[in-house]
Write a structure and sequence with these properties.
The chain has 236 residues and is of the alpha/beta class. Helix content is 37%, strand content 19%.
Length: 236
């Protein structure tokens, strides 16, 4: 099947790498995600990944801590995840480059937009680590920012729920499931899909977002093939 998109940015939450343990990295889960990434890579799709760090550290749980320090710790957690993804992907013969928003030259490249685009053009999977490099910004905002910067066609937002709902479907079974939403609807309804900074950035730059569950890792392939899974967010 001909992929619908030429260049995608996949946002993986840190928790997605942890599996049922909810903490750390589950090698089996990471392998199954990377296997799906390889399928879309084999279709010739250019792939960038922004990974979160919540499987190691969540800044919001450190209420007594200085917010900047807690956020920087989260950024370091994303670097661990990026390196784990790189390791597994390269063992699957996918060339990858990790670029960090915070300089850590000993372990990975610094983020350079033009170099990232060159890597994508050469068929390398580019994994962006350390969020935006700034505290007070989430990795969702990093995903929106990087997607706009590299000119991605879409953000594929892989979550632990299968779509956007009006309420938490696990708590409220009556919650409405949305197939399509505009950016303004997400903002007005205060839907917890991305934080306000991230969704606003997408809105201002007309960056579409497809939200879907990663419980079925094959959803990644379905999304790239343009199948109507999960929720599509676009249109002002
Ligand atoms: P091309 O120039 O397009 O061929 O890209 P390339 O990434 O293969 O070339 P480069 O010489 O920049 O990188 C070679 C290897 O070194 C790659 O695995 C890069 O990820 C890595 N590398 C490049 N810059 C840095 C850096 O600042 N720090 C670290 N740790 N690795 C780097």
């Amino acid at each position: 099947m001909q992929p619908k998109y030429h260049r995608v940015l996949i946002k993986l939450s840190g928790e997605a790498l942890a599996g049922d343990e909810g903490f750390g990295i589950n090698p089996t889960v990471v392998k199954s995600i990377c296997k799906e990434v390889k399928k879309i890579w084999m279709q010739g799709v250019e792939i960038a990944i922004v990974v979160g760090g919540g499987n190691f550290w969540r800044g919001r749980f450190a209420e007594d801590m200085d917010k900047s320090s807690a956020d920087y710790m989260g950024m370091l957690a994303t670097v661990i995840n990026a390196m784990a993804l790189q390791d597994v992907m390269e063992r699957m013969d996918m060339p990858t480059r990790v670029q960090s928003a915070i300089d850590m030259k000993t372990i990975c490249e610094p983020y350079i937009k033009r170099k990232a685009i060159r890597h994508l053009e050469k068929g390398r999977v580019v994994i962006f680590a350390a969020g935006t490099g700034n505290p007070f910004f989430t990795t969702d905002t990093a995903a929106a920012l990087r997607a706009v910067e590299i000119g991605a066609d879409i953000i594929l937002l892989a979550k632990n729920v299968d779509a956007v709902y009006s309420d938490d479907p696990l708590i409220n079974p009556q919650a409405t499931r949305y197939e399509r939403l505009t950016y303004s609807e997400v903002i007005e309804k205060n839907l917890q899909v991305m934080d306000l900074t991230a969704i606003t950035l997408c809105k201002e730059n007309k960056m579409p977002i497809q939200v879907f569950g990663l419980a079925n890792p094959e959803n990644l392939v379905h999304a790239v093939d343009g199948e109507k899974i999960g929720t599509i967010i676009q249109g002002s």
